[in-house]
Amino acid sequence: MSKNSFFIRYLESNNSFSNMLQIKVFTFNPFYENTYILYDETNKAVIVDPGCYEREEREELMDFIRKEHLQVTELVNTHCHIDHVLGNEFVKTTFKVPLSIHQKEVAVLKSVQAYAPSYGFAGYQASEPDQFLDPGKVLQVGNEQLKILYVPGHSPGHVVFYHAESKTCIAGDTLFQGSIGRTDLPGGDHGTLLNAIKSVLFTLPEDTIVFPGHGPETSIGAEKEYNPFVGKRAGLR
């Protein structure tokens, strides 16, 4: 998969075509980060973790939004490492929408400006959060609601978004196909992440589809069985 390749997945809620969450994923920047657009039949949309940095990446994002006649209502970050926030300010200013993050991610977001040039992103534009995501509450996408779940360990304020009707989880850098998020960055903690995956993500239905921050989608059931860090074969359940 090239870094600009993409796919679209339609997920039905209650088997009704008039009520469904739609997910568009782009793979952006040298970290091959997954940027998501969530929307429904109202054409209201939320952008999750915009990693678009280059002009071509931003145009690709914009082209899809224009083509689908979407109205972007909010920008959210699962967490605020550099690869997930490179397009924050672009999205905020282009669509005039608020940025929502977990309060524990404020320091993580602020630190990006200091180290971005050393990663080759000298043109990074810093962004400020406008409101905070509260675990247990919901992220509204048109008529659809995704529950906000707190899954720290990769970063101190990492959250994921779970859509119960379609059994879909936008998981950021918590759980991957056959892996988990790294925990050697500032604010990371390996034990915290393992515990959060098992106590939060692994309580979701096993047929829940996990859309991660990098790489292909997987399922809760597959990772409970085969994941070498948190699955049955790791002896951690």
TrEMBL record:
The answer to whether the entry has keyword Zinc is yes
Q: Which cofactor does it need?
A: Zn(2+)
What this protein is called in its record is Metallo-beta-lactamase family protein
Superkingdom classification of source? Bacteria
**SMART domains in the record, alphabetically?**
Lactamase_B
Q: Where is the signal peptide?
A: none
Alphabetical keyword list: Hydrolase, Metal-binding, Zinc
Recorded GO MF terms? hydrolase activity; metal ion binding
Residues in Metallo-beta-lactamase domain copies? 32-214
